[in-house]
Amino acid sequence: MLECLLPGDVKPREPRASAKEIMADAVKLGRWRSVAEVRGGKWLPRAGDLAIYDRSIAGRPETSWYGHVDRVIRVSEDQREYDNVGANEVAGSWRIESTPFNLPRLLGFVGGCPVGC
After folding, report:
1. Domain coverage including residue 94
2. How far apart are the first and last CA of the chain?
3. Is the residue at 4 inside a domain?
4. What's the pLDDT tens digit per position in 22-54?
5. Distance (Å, rounded) from C-alpha 89 to C-alpha 36?
6. Is 106 strand, coil or helix?
7. Which of 2, 28, 34, 78 is the most buried (most CB within 10 A)?
8. What is the pLDDT of residue 46?
9. Can you tell me the distance from the alpha carbon of 16 to that of 6, in angstroms, rounded to the nearest whole number?
10. How many CB atoms are located within 10 Å of the residue 84 CB?
11. How far apart are CA 46 and CA 72, in angstroms?
12. Total number of domains constituting the chain
């Protein structure tokens, strides 16, 4: 990401790996979009945006920081799901799948531009 920035560009996020840190950075930068905005028809992610998921385990507070990140590839024409690419589900592998916007563990998205652009 840092190597792709042009002079004067603003980093869309800090170079982190943790889903919860990426989410917190996005909130600070005005780039966080909650899944409620999507479900309410107010916003849609675009190719390149990040999807953030909760992976905590109920009743185990030590897992409260567990999360996951995928990259959006495209939004379906009916706007009910999005295709995404992710990794880490199985060591050394990538996967592409479709995910519905009503997935219970979907928290929201890190948009490519700040809210209001």
Report:
1. 15-110
2. 21
3. no
4. 999 899 889 999 999 999 999 999 999 999 999
5. 26
6. strand
7. 34
8. 93
9. 20
10. 21
11. 7
12. 1
